[in-house]
Amino acid sequence: MEWDEKLQLIIDYVENHLQRKQEPIDHQEVSVIAGCSFDFFLKVFSYMKGISFSEYVRSRKLTLAGYDLKSTDQRVVDISYQYGYDSPTSFTKAFQQFHGMTPKEARSGNAKLRVVPKMQIWERQRYSWKLEQKPGFRLIGKSVWCAHGQQGSKIPEFWSDCQKSGVFSKLISIDIGKPGGLFGLYRNGESSAGEIEYSIMVAAEGALPEGYGEIRIPETTWAVFDCRGAVPQAIQSGWKYLQEEWLVRYPFDHADCPELEWYSTGNAYDKEYLSQIWIPVIDGHKERNR
Prior knowledge:
This protein is of the alpha+beta class. The protein is 43% helix and 21% strand.
C-alpha cells in the first residue's frame, strides 16, 4: 500500500473518531495503519501535506465544535470534553484563537466561523513512493569508475558493454531476487578526485564468479520511488526530481547504505516499463528503541 492510500485511511480514521465515535485519536492505531512508528508517520504527514498532523486534527476538532455550537444546544462544557479538551477554559482559548471569537459569540446569528474541511488526498504524484523495510541481502556484479561529470555518458556505455559481453546473461542466471531484476549501485571513491564507482548487480548467493565483485546490503528501511517509462530517460528524470525536490526537503535521516536503482524484467523501452530508485532512510524512533 502506498502513502497516498495510507494517508486516506488515516484521514478517514480521524473523521470517524471525531464525528462518530467521539473518541481520542489512538497513536498506536495510526501507527498500525501507516506501517511505521508514529514519530515517523508524523514526519511523512508533515512533508506530504504541508501541515503537521496535530495541527490538522486540532483544526478539524475546532471546525466540528463550531458546527455543534451553531446547530445544537449542547453546553460549552460538554463540547469541550467531547473534543478532548481538559477544561472549558482551555477549549475557549483554543476556539477563540482559531475562529477569532468566543464560543458564546459564535452562537450569535451573524457569526462567521472558520472552516477547515476534511482533507482530501492530493492528485497522485508523478513519482509515487512508499516506505519498505527490507532484510539484508547480497549483491554480485560488475563495476566501472566514472570521473565527476562523466556519469551521464559513462554509465549508459557500461550498460551497453555488459549486454554485449554476456555479463547480463550471467547475472540473470544467478539472480534470486523476488521479483527478479538488475540493480544499479552508486558508491563514492575514497580519493579526492571525486570519482564514483557504479555497479550493475543482482541479488545472489553461492560462490562469487571470477572477475565479479560483491557487497552486503544491511537490513534497511527504503523510500522506494517508481519511475515509469523507457530507460535511461525515466530513471534520469526520477533522479532529477529527487535532487531538485524530495532529497532537498525530505524529513528523514539518510541511512549508512548506498542508494540503489532497480530495473525490472521486461521491455526496457516500453512506456510502462518499471524502474525504481531506492533511498535508504532511518526511522529515528525505531533506532532509539533498539
